[in-house]
Amino acid sequence: MAALNQLMRLHRWNLDEKRQKLAELERLRERLQGNVEALEDELRREKEAAARADVTSISLPAFIRATLERRQKIEESVAEVDRSISAAREEIADAFQELKKYETAHNNQRRREAEKQSKREQVLADETGLEIHRRRAAGAD
Question: Helix, strand, or coil here: 52?
Answer without folding.
Answer: helix
